[in-house]
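Notes from hallway chat w/ T.B., transcribed later so I don't forget. T.B. wanted the structure written out for a chain they're using in a teaching module, and asked if we could keep both sequence and structure tokens in one place. Agreed to drop them here.
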Amino acid sequence: MSKGKVASGLVESLYALAVASAVLKGASRMAYMARGYDAAGGEYCLAALAYWAAWMAMRGLVKALEGLRDERRRKESGS
């Protein structure tokens, strides 16, 4: 596996983790306000969904940028 693939995978995962943790923090506060006590509930499912959505969005962005880079390299080489 190349360094670029590892780096892009790390960026995708870290971005998704940051989004999921922000969603979990907000959802936990909302759940506490609704219930009045701390408990584990659907906010964890929401955080997992947010992680997946953010990871897919970042993965699509990285693939699009890689495609643009490859296209630019092909034009520069004259192929």
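Follow-up for T.B.: The chain has a mean pLDDT of 91. Might be a good example for the class.
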